[in-house]
Amino acid sequence: MTEPSNEPRIYRGLKDVYFERSGTTFIDGKAGELRYRGYSIHDLAAHSCFEETAYLLIHGELPTVAELKAFDAELKAARTLPADVLEVIRLIQRAHPMDVLRTAVSALAAFDPETADTSRAATIRKGVRLSSQVPMIVAAHERIRNGLAPLAPDPTLGHAANFLWLLKGDKPSGDAAKLLDTDLVLHAEHGSNASSFTARVVIGTDANIHAAITAAIAALSGPAHGGAAEDVMRMAEEIGDPANTAAYVKAKRAAKEPITGFGHRVYRAEDPRARHMREGVKQLSKEMGEPKWYEILESLVAEMKPYARHGVNVNVDFYSGVIYYLHKIPKDLFVPIFAVGRVPGWTVQVLEQLDNNILIRPLTLYTGPEARAYVPIGQRG
User: Fold this and answer.
1) DSSP per residue over 129-186, as a string?
2) Which contacts (CB < 8 Å, 24+ apart) does range 227-230 have?
3) For residue 29, what are the contacts with CB-CB under 8 A and spacing of at least 6?
């Protein structure tokens, strides 16, 4: 009979471990369900906008007309970057956009009047400011690295439309702006993912929100977390034509390589956010005169249907990359755009951690040598 082991069980990656309670995001991976503050992602994607969704996440309830107007004004008032932060961007313009974003957000802490104030009210105000400043950073870097001056924000445009204006210098169509707005809503929050957990760990040390979001951006920069949209677009370019999809999938499966954009750490059913991007990609592909990208994605979905019963379903990033590509946005900006949408989610994760803060300090099981005597360097063989 085998003796029971006294060795503690290891949950690698903290998979299926609950470390805290949250009133923000409900995820049912088996059913493919996602809710922000109790509201279905399907209702929010269909009827809400980024500004309203950000208010909901940060304040806990949908805003009234007056509250949304005031919140929108607060966001628009924060569409500024200090001249010294722009200079930092110029100095490091050749770096990857995620490295530039991380550095610039960290630099903003030196110029925010409330950096040292870690109260809930001040943290909310800083989170709102960062929600506007992050897209400003991404757009300013894209302009600067291409020898162009950053553009002034347009107060007549909403959050998503203004970002496209700052990035491209052209005002987007209503449909194109709405599609990006929906994309930002879908990416706004997603529970205790790697970057959100990182933000909580940092706040657990009583650091400020700039430090937490700087760390969250660093976590998001890793391809295992934020890189799927960029990889999907590369895959679509590699396939090149819907007629090539079957052979591509067959070769990938034979080599036991994953198909990017399928499968998710949480969802066993289809990612509930994906369907809201599918129709948008179809329409934007037609508007931009490049329908083949949508056709390639749909041919991939069809080829991957046999694997759905094993929990390998399409995820939200499967469609997002094509949206950005059709807007002529460089691939290395795909993950920074993810960050643009996620700032309200990081903010609410920080706020929840602050509400009942505790230092997050898990254990590791030691597997090194047993105790041994120190040997002076002259006596070592």
Assistant:
1) HHHHHHHHHHHHHHHHHTT-PPPPP-TTS-HHHHHHHHHHSSPPPHHHHHHHHHHHHH
2) 227/335, 228/260, 228/261, 228/315, 228/317, 228/318, 228/321, 229/317, 229/320, 229/321, 229/324, 229/334, 229/335, 229/338, 230/321, 230/331, 230/332, 230/334, 230/335
3) 264, 266, 267, 268, 269
Q: What is the mean pLDDT of the chain?
A: 92
**Highest mean pLDDT: which of 10-14, 21-25, 26-30, 297-301?**
21-25
Which residues are bridge partners to 26 per DSSP? Answer: 35
| pLDDT attached to residue 359 | 97
Residues 123, 348: Cα–Cα separation, whole Å = 10
pLDDT at 275 over 80: yes
Residue 16 backbone class (left: φ over 0; alpha: ψ -120 to 50; beta: rest):
left
**pLDDT score recorded for residue 161:** 97
Instruction: Look up 276 and say whether it is catalytic.
Output: no
pTM of this structure: 0.91
112, 271, 317, 327: which is the annotated catalytic residue? Answer: 317
Is 170 tagged catalytic?
no
Q: Please write the tens of the pLDDT for every residue from 215-258.
A: 999 999 998 887 777 888 889 999 999 999 999 999 998 998 88
Check: CB of residue 207 under 8 Å from CB of residue 41.
Answer: no
Beta strand pairing call for 39-40 and 33-36: antiparallel
Distance from C-alpha of 83 to C-alpha of 80, rounded to nearest angstrom? 9
pLDDT score of 190: 93
Question: Of residues 141, 264, 276, 327, which has the active-site annotation?
Answer: 264
The residue-averaged pLDDT of 326-355 equals 95
* pLDDT computed for residue 5 by the predictor: 63
- Other C-beta atoms lying within 10 Å of the C-beta of residue 38: 11
